[in-house]
Design goal:
Layout lengths: L9 H15 L24 E6 L12 H18 L3 E3 L3 E2 L4 H10 L3 H17 L11 E2 L3 H16 L3 E11 L4 E3 L16 E11 L5 H6 L8 H11 L2 E10 L2 H4 L8 E6 L10 E4 L16 H13 L2 H6 L7 E9 L6 E6 L11 E4 L5 H9 L12 H4 L4 E5 L5 E2 L1 E2 L9 E4 L3 E4 L32 E2 L6 E4 L3 E2 L1 H4 L3 H4 L12 H7 L4 E4 L7 H14 L12 E3 L3 E2 L16 H8 L1 H10 L7 E2 L2 H17 L3 E2 L5 H19 L3 H16 L4 E2 H11 L4 H12 L20 H4 L3 E8 L2 E9 L4 H10 L1 H7 L6 E5 L3 E5 L1
Parallel strand pairs: 1-2, 1-22, 3-4, 10-12, 22-23, 24-25, 26-27, 28-31
Antiparallel strand pairs: 5-6, 5-7, 7-15, 8-9, 8-11, 8-14, 10-13, 11-12, 16-21, 17-18, 17-20, 19-20, 28-29, 30-31
The protein binds one RNA strand of 85 nucleotides through α7, β9, β13, α11 and β25.
Length: 795
RNA sequence: GCCGAAGUGGUGAAAUUGGCAAACACGCAAGAUUUAGGAUCUUGUGCCUCACGGUUUGUGGGUUCGAGUCCCACCUUCGGCACCA
């Protein structure tokens, strides 16, 4: 036994082993692992790769939340387990470092976001390191560094050159009091997150990514990835595919007014229910529809219609949604359409319950079939006609098949400072020009004022706009908006592979070797944001054949929230935030890890319970104490069987991310070992190996204590050892307990030889005095026998 | 409103997938030890009953020898979407 403390003191042993692992490079991933290592599990082709990824954190000023280590512990357990099973594991970490909080902080305190962000990163890094996660720190990335965002800009240009990035006018969230545009996340419930004033809609020129060009692939790809079903369903709904028909309604007499067009003026509608067209008694167009603005059409109440359109435009998206029940609209007087199914003349309305951004911005209203149309028809006293189902229009080819998606293009412009500048310049002569790749990165200027004025802070930087047109060399001006931070995080898992590469975002060979990601763990809140965007990026790269796969994350698992005691969200204002540093200081990192994994099912939201932390610590204390009883004696059969069973169980549970039950089996094994005066080194060694992924520091410490004098404990780190194997023969019991039911009611248990026959069991049951009293003097009508499990006597 | 997930002791939960419900842990109670303890150890602990025994997985029904698990209806809680024609 090496010289070791009698008492378990995690604060002494944890930093020691963290330094050791880093010094020995045990957490390093090996690119192209072709050299067979010493171990028999490593074959000629090298170890199989395993890319284990966490959603990288935003380094907020608040520091690490106890929720972070929950996900990180899970991936760490799996990474360590996979390494012990002969895998070449890639387990990186980095910083999603651009974003609004740093900028808001700068507005308040004048501290430059670069400064505060790097301070936060240093703090996060220290906190994360104190928990003993086996990250390959050599691969660390920071999305706010020019070396990184150079390639974020490269991706912008890549999309631009392929026609997947374009500029267009769009309505955005606008806060009048802060004089700034807000992201959707900042405009929740229609209120500004900072000043609580109402958010308005404003039309601005914005950059978009054409994610809609990939709608069908984004939908179809979901079928081939191992993701939680609810997340898949959310993405499916978000993409919102619907198959229907488009059909044109002629506007009556419009031909005379617009004779030069050689045709009738028409309104095209989209419907998923072409069969109900006979019940269509009016048309409705969105306020933005061009027909509503057509002055030559002879709309008699043109002023009234114009008023309605103006009012609708001023309403925020939220206000429009608030009026779901009370539908408004105006009839276009003097203008009617012809229902092509029955030739009937029907009125046309403009109403804001029809969206301009979906379908054709016009609908055929079938009040007998559609609830919304029904409400509108009731309010405006329109005829409600029962529907004779008919596919006539479709069959005749008058209605054309059409697929629509709810997915919209991704608005990526942000009028903010702390983000990656959009690499575009505007020339007076040549117009919009892409910054040549060789001129990347477009650096964020430092001479800016963060006070919000309604324009991007970059507008006023003098340095930033000293630029010439890349085409004609004439005077030009840079785009002053930055990119949504979700652009940075859509490709970061590529950059880990090759974060120092100056010529490419990542080397193709490295991409081919490591990607796609084998396991991705993070919160469900990114269901339709980051996870959809990252899939889009991969699909765009694949379509241009830059990579060989189109689904970046093969397996996704969600980490459940950790709530405050009492089940509410942790928040500064409520003063119920648990700081992981305090837990590490008081109980140790291993305790925090064990506790968070033992709390309950991994993907479930569970409230913090400080008493439970004490229980996790007691578990480790007892293990530490047990080392005194480890002896040279050979193992006893009962314990040997128990160890075999638990090796199987822990391995299976880790694979299925059932960490809570894995730990509970380790506790059961500990309880059994504690029942022995002496514990064989054979048993204890394997127990430590099983414990190691969960509580790496204490496992390494105890392993070290034995390996010096007990040959069963091999040299080197515990993490260089192989995961223990179990003996199938030992899993079988010679005797089993059989449940005895009388008429379906459990009345007792008998012990029989494994594999005993029905007759044998029946004889034993009849001889059992306790059970026999239930059968005495009665007829057994039927016997149900399940070998090694149960016998049911039906009387 | 629509979509999704979940309802099991005082608490977090477990249940080999249809076979002794409540493993493991927290809490609680009693005891041991200690000058003392919120440290440690032992025992007990779903509910009713002195007991024999009865009874229990949101509610009501069903299938089955047997249901926490399968089927039908309903209730509640949480998450997402929200006029997408």
């Amino acid at each position: 036994m090496a010289e070791q403390e009698k008492k378990y003191e995690p604060n002494k042993i944890e930093p020691k082993w963290q330094k050791y692992w880093e010094k020995e490079g045990l957490n390093r991933a090996k690119d192209f692992d072709k050299n067979p290592a010493q171990s028999a599990t490593h074959n000629e082709a090298g170890r199989p790769k395993f890319y284990c990824l966490d959603m990288f954190p935003y380094p907020s000023g608040a520091g690490l939340h106890v929720g972070h280590p929950k996900g990180y512990t899970a991936t760490d357990i799996i990474s360590r387990y996979k390494r012990m099973n002969g895998f070449n594991v890639f387990h990186p970490i980095g910083w999603d470092a651009f974003g609004l909080p740093a900028e808001n902080y700068a507005i308040k305190t004048k501290v430059h976001p670069n400064e505060s962000t790097h301070k936060n990163i240093a703090h996060f890094k220290e906190q994360i390191k104190s928990l003993g996660f086996s990250y390959d720190w050599e691969r660390e990335i920071d999305t706010s560094s020019p070396e990184y965002y150079k390639w974020t800009q490269w991706f912008f240009l890549f999309l631009y050159k392929n026609g997947w990035a374009y500029k267009a006018k769009a309505a955005v969230n606008w806060c009048d009091s802060c004089q700034t545009v807000l992201a959707n996340e900042q405009a929740q419930d229609g209120k500004c997150e900072r000043c609580s004033s109402n958010v308005l809609q404003k039309d601005l020129e914005q950059w978009f990514f054409k994610i809609t060009d990939f709608s069908e692939e984004l939908l179809a790809g979901l079928d081939k990835i191992d993701w939680p079903e609810p997340i898949k369903i959310m993405q499916k709904n978000w993409i919102g595919k619907s198959e229907g028909y488009e059909i044109d309604f002629n506007i009556k007499n419009s031909v005379t007014k617009l004779a030069d067009r050689h045709s009738l003026l028409q309104i095209r509608v989209f419907t998923t229910r072409i069969d109900t067209i006979f019940g269509c008694t009016y048309l409705v167009i969105a306020p933005e529809h061009e027909i509503a603005k057509n002055q030559e059409l002879g709309i008699k109440n043109y002023e009234e219609v114009k008023d309605y359109v103006e009012t609708a435009k001023k309403k925020s998206e939220r206000d429009r949604q608030a009026d779901v029940k009370d539908k408004t609209g105006v009839k276009l007087e003097g203008v009617t359409a012809i229902n092509p199914a029955n030739g009937k003349e029907i009125p046309i309305f403009v109403a804001d319950y029809v969206l301009s951004s979906y379908g054709t911005g016009a609908i055929m209203a079938v009040p007998a079939q559609d609830e919304r149309d029904f409400e509108f028809a009731k309010k405006f006293n329109l005829p409600i006609v029962e529907v004779p189902n008919s596919m006539e229009m479709a069959e005749k080819g008058i209605a054309k098949k059409k697929i629509n998606y709810r997915l919209r293009d991704w608005l990526v412009s942000r009028q903010r400072y702390w983000g990656a500048p959009i690499p575009i310049v505007y020339c007076e002569k040549c117009g919009e020009q892409a910054v040549p790749e060789k001129d990347l990165p477009v650096l964020l200027p430092t001479d800016v004022d963060f006070m919000p004025t309604g324009e991007s802070p970059l507008v006023k930087s003098k340095e930033f706009h000293k630029v010439k047109c890349p085409k004609c060399g004439g005077p030009a001006r840079r785009e002053s908006d930055t990119m949504d931070t979700f652009v940075c995080s859509s490709w970061y898992f590529f950059r880990y592979l090759d974060h120092k590469n100056k010529n490419e975002f990542a080397d193709k060979k490295l991409i081919d070797y490591w990607l796609p990601v084998d396991l991705y763990v993070g919160g469900a809140e990114h269901a339709v944001l980051h996870l959809l965007y990252a899939r889009f990026f991969a699909k765009a790269l694949k379509r241009i054949s830059l990579i060989g796969f189109d689904e970046p994350f093969l397996k996704l698992r969600n980490v459940g929230l950790i709530l405050a005691e009492g089940g509410v969200k942790m928040s500064k204002s409520k003063g119920n935030v648990i700081n992981p540093d305090d837990i590490v200081k008081e109980y140790g990192a291993d305790t925090l890890r064990i506790y968070e994994m033992f709390m309950g099912p991994f993907d479930q939201a569970i409230a913090w319970d400080t008493k439970g932390v004490g229980g996790a610590r007691r578990f480790l204390d007892r293990i530490y104490k047990l080392k005194e009883r480890v002896s040279a004696k050979s193992s006893n059969l009962e314990l040997e069987k128990a160890v075999n069973k638990i090796i199987k169980k822990v391995g299976e549970d880790i694979e299925q991310m059932k960490f809570n039950t894995a730990i509970s089996s380790l506790m059961i094994l500990l309880n059994e070992m504690e029942g022995e005066e002496e514990i064989s080194g054979d048993i204890f060694e394997r127990f430590l190996l099983l414990l190691a992924p969960f509580a790496p520091h204490i496992a390494e410490e105890l392993y070290e204590g034995f390996k010096i004098q007990d040959s069963r404990f091999k040299n080197g780190s515990i993490f260089e050892q192989e995961w223990p194997k179990y003996d199938t023969a030992l899993l079988k019991e010679e005797k089993v307990n059989i449940v005895v039911q009388i008429s379906g009611k459990a009345r007792g248990v008998v012990e029989v030889e494994t594999g005993a026959s029905e007759q044998e069991v029946l004889d034993i049951v009849k001889a059992d005095s306790k059970i026999n009293k239930w059968i005495e003097g009665q007829n057994i009508k039927k016997v149900i026998f399940i070998q090694n499990k149960l016998i049911n006597l039906v009387l």
